[in-house]
């Protein structure tokens, strides 16, 4: 299969923004990336996308590292290397530490006239948007500042925009097959607020190239970013990347998974006493179905069985009862001593010191 290259060429990444508690959806995407890397003897990279200074917080980054470690999703490259099989450095792995790298490429695009400074203020942009809506047109930036070479009197650059070519962008998604977008609908996208302040689409494209990423496996909510990223890759002469967009996780009413229906933070499940094995097993089954009837798998079984090409296109409903059932199944597989150790941690996290001997007696009873 052309989409699955030589084993040693697999380099995937999970690229969370540390702007909130570690969400189960992100964990599922991390798991799919990790499984794909492990089964192809590839590399799993953890990249922290913290260019949004207002919303990024260190404590959320710590939560990501802690959550992945707890589940056994070890990363080969990232801010804190846990694996012994460290395979070389494409760091730093926090976007906030890579500003000079992005700057170089922003300047390249500006110089080649593939990007330009936009002087439109928020108010002007908003007026333009309203005018388009009034005409019944889908709103997009008009390209007003495309050919301005000197700053208009009394105006300063507001943002940097990428000149979107008039074209259809098509790509082959490992899960969804052929996907195509009409780039004429985008308008010239904002790639940076200034040379030192890149935005997501731009920084991600630069990093995926600089970090030699082979496959981008991410949530379906990013699918409309993919054509923009492909156009940026082309403008920068970057090589192509393979894409797989995994289905969204849904509430039972098929709306996007939210706290309205269930807890979404991984660490909350941990503190409620769920086993990491059960969570990993449960998340693997959100969008992927093994061949055969057995659904109870350890992480090591999943490496053997998981198949990205068998991931479904449609949304995957989060079923709390299934998680509870899997937790029970994995609990049954633990020895008494393992249960005692898990309980010790569980109580310790609550500041309760319990004598091990007592726990042993309770568990065996
Ligand atoms: N920082 C983005 C996010 O958290 C990464 C998306 C991607 O994988 O490209 O959703
Ligand atoms: Zn403008």
Describe the structure.
The chain is an alpha/beta fold. Helix content is 37%, strand content 13%. It contains twelve helices and twelve strands. It has helices at 24-39, 58-71, 99-111, 122-134, 200-210, 225-235, 266-271, 276-284, 299-305, 320-332, 336-348, 356-364, and strands at residues 11-14, 43-46, 115-118, 159-162, 168-173, 177-182, 190-194, 197-198, 215-219, 242-246, 249-250, 316-317. The protein has a four-stranded antiparallel β-sheet. A hairpin with a 2-residue loop joins strand 7 and strand 8 (197-198). Helix 8 (276-284) crosses helix 10. The longest helix has 16 residues, at 24-39. It is elongated, with a radius of gyration of 23 Å. The protein starts with 10 loop residues before the first strand and ends with a helix. The model has no long low-confidence stretch (mean pLDDT 94). Zinc ion binds next to loops.
Protein traits:
single chain, 365 residues, alpha/beta, four-stranded antiparallel beta sheet, two-stranded parallel ribbon, 12 helices, elongated, binds glutamic acid, binds zinc ion
Query: Secondary-structure element order, as H and E?
Result: EHEHHEHEEEEEHEHEEHHHEHHH
- Mean of residue pLDDT values: 94
Integer-rounded radius of gyration? 23 Å
Assembly state (oligomeric)? single chain
Hetero groups = glutamic acid, zinc ion
Unreliable spans are none
Structural class: alpha/beta
Portion of residues within helices:
25-40%
* Span of the ends, CA to CA: 54 Å
Number of helices: 12
User: What is the strand content?
Assistant: 5-15%
- Spatial strand sequence of the major β-sheet: 3-4-7-8
Sheet with the most strands, sense and barrel status: 4 strands, antiparallel
- What gross morphology would you assign? elongated
């Amino acid at each position: 299969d052309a989409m699955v290259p030589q084993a040693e060429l697999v380099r995937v990444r999970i690229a969370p923004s540390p702007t909130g508690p570690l969400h189960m959806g992100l964990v599922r995407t991390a798991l799919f990336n990790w499984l794909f890397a492990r089964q192809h003897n590839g590399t799993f990279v953890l990249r922290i996308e913290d260019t949004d200074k207002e919303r990024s917080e260190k404590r959320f980054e710590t939560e990501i590292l802690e959550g992945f470690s707890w589940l056994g999703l070890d990363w080969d490259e990232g801010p804190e290397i846990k694996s012994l099989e460290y395979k070389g450095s494409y760091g730093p792995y926090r976007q906030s530490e890579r500003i000079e790298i992005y700057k170089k490429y922003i300047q390249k695009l500006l110089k080649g006239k593939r990007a330009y400074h936009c002087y439109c203020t928020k108010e002007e942009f908003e007026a333009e948007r309203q005018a388009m809506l009034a005409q019944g047109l889908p709103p997009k930036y008009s390209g007003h500042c495309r050919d301005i070479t000197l700053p208009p009197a009394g105006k300063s650059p507001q943002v940097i925009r990428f000149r979107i070519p008039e074209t259809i962008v098509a790509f082959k998604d490992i899960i969804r097959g052929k996907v195509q977008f009409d780039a004429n609908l985008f308008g010239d996208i904002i790639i940076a607020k200034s040379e030192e302040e890149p935005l997501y689409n731009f920084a991600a494209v630069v990093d995926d190239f600089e970090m030699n990423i082979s496959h981008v496996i991410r949530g379906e909510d990013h699918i409309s970013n993919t054509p923009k990223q492909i156009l940026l890759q082309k403008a920068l002469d970057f090589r192509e990347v393979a894409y797989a967009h995994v289905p969204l996780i849904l509430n039972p009413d098929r709306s996007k998974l939210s706290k309205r229906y269930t807890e979404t933070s991984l660490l909350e499940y941990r503190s409620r006493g769920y086993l990491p094995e059960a969570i990993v097993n449960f998340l693997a089954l959100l969008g992927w179905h093994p061949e055969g009837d057995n659904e109870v798998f350890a992480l090591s079984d999943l490496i053997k069985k998981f198949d990205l090409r068998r991931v479904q296109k449609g949304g995957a409903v989060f079923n709390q009862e299934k998680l509870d059932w899997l937790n029970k199944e994995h609990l049954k597989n633990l020895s008494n001593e393992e249960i005692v150790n898990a309980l010790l941690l569980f109580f310790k996290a609550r500041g309760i010191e319990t004598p091990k001997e007592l726990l042993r007696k309770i568990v065996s009873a």
